[in-house]
């Protein structure tokens, strides 16, 4: 598949579709929710909770992907 003369990989297209869907889902949920964090209970807009969850998930995914991509050293 090409976009403006450049080849676009299927993985990139899938990522873009998921990113747009996630942003749309976050923007559509604006009500307030109560979240219990072990001891304190806080009331926040749902979009902020979803955004934090998305960012933490992305960071964990990047961390795991980088660990898998690194060659392992052999131990003797």
Automatic annotation (TrEMBL):
The chain crosses the membrane at residues 44-65. Keywords: Membrane, Transmembrane, Transmembrane helix. It comes from the Bacteria. This is DUF1049 domain-containing protein.
């Amino acid at each position: 598949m090409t976009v403006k003369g450049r080849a676009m990989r299927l993985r990139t297209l899938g990522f873009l579709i998921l990113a747009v869907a996630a942003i749309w889902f976050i923007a559509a949920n604006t009500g307030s929710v109560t979240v219990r964090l072990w001891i304190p209970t806080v009331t926040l807009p749902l979009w902020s909770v979803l955004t934090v969850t998305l960012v933490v998930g992305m960071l964990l995914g990047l961390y795991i992907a980088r660990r898998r991509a690194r060659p392992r050293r052999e131990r003797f």
